[in-house]
Amino acid sequence: MSWMSMVMGAAPFMVMIIVECVEVGLSTLSKAAMVKGMSNFVFIVYYNALGTVILLPVFLYNIFRGNGVRITFSLLYKFFLLGLIGICLLQICAYTGINYSSPTLAAAIGNLIPVFTFILAVILRMEKLDLRNLSSQAKCLGTIVAISGAMVVTLYKGPPLITQTPDAASNKLLAMPLNWTLGGLLLAITSLLSSTGNILQTATAKECPDELTLVFFYSLFGTVQSAAVSVFVESDPNKWILHHRIEIIAIIYAAVTTTVFRNTVITWCLREKGPVYVVSYKPLAIVIAMIMGVIGSVAITAGFYSVIWGQAKENDDLASGNVSKLESTGDLNASLLKNIDDSICGSA
Q: Where would you find this protein in the cell (predicted)?
């Protein structure tokens, strides 16, 4: 086996690792932008719109060179469904579910994406299942365990640690489990939508061999659909104005790394390896986030001790300068006293 074939064989693995790193970075930047007040609906529309604009020249260039794919009604219909499932409905359910529950629950239920994808792939005969095979038995057992764990974290929420008045505590106990369960169900629907989108994207990628054309129409339809919904949700014009630099950075980062890069390489991986292979890397996001957290902690600690060392060094230099100054002042005073004594002795 030549080194080129080895590199090509390892390409999907390396690409998916990069994709997970990109998604962790996107979560960090988008959270920072939304803390500043940017609406998640506005964020979705802006970054998908910018990504579509970036892809437009490439799409037109392919058409001009005669390399473009023949766009049929069947493809347009699939592009429309991809935008509806993968961008519009998925993002609405995801952010609403997080709003009702918590990001921690979203991360836990996000591990259902490989499970739902595996079930759909088996139903649609995209994945083989032989219960006499040990690997198939392991997949089935993992599916049951994952679904059971998701049901536990969705249906159970511990009691609040601090309560105020009896009436407030009673109302809170009645409201929180309902919101928590509703948020968990919405996040589970998000995982199902993501899995459905991966299956549909795999089928579309086989019909449309040009990844950039697929991603262009996918993003175009998703932008139009999410914009139609967001205009009603965010009717205040001030919500659509970007007030902070981090908002612009997050939008540009998401457009380049997610709409253009991530969607393109995932489309390629879906066609080459299938949907089950792609979603099997999803749990790595937690590991990558932990590693980045450790690196960030090390950097913060190193910076802190560097500042402390610099201040200590500065204080030592200042103290040394003061001592030298005192010594030079003492020598000067002694010299002046000696001159005065000499003058007095000479006069006598």
A: Membrane
CA distances from 327 to 122, 316, 333, 336 (A): 87, 16, 10, 14
Distance CA(236)–CA(314), nearest Å, equals 52
Provide the residue type at 242 as one letter. L
Q: Are 269 and 117 in contact (CB under 8 A)?
A: no
Query: Which amino acid is located at 57 in the chain?
Result: P
What is the rounded distance in angstroms from the CA atom of residue 51 to the CA atom of residue 314?
49
Helix axes 166-207, 112-123, angle to 10 degrees: 40
Among 199, 214, 164, CA closest to 278: 199
In order of 50, 149, 262, the CA distances from 47 in angstroms are: 5, 34, 13
Question: In this structure, are residues 126 and 275 in contact, taking their beta carbons and an 8 Å threshold?
Answer: yes
**Residues whose CB falls within 8 Å of the CB of residue 93, separated by 6 or more in sequence, listed in order:** 186, 187, 189, 190, 193
25: CB partners within 8 A, 6+ apart: 253, 257
pTM: 0.71
Cα(first)–Cα(last) distance of the chain, in Å?
Answer: 107
Answer whether 285's CB lies under 8 Å from 23's CB.
yes
* 31-84 pLDDT per residue, tens: 778 778 888 888 889 999 999 999 999 888 888 877 667 888 889 999 999 999
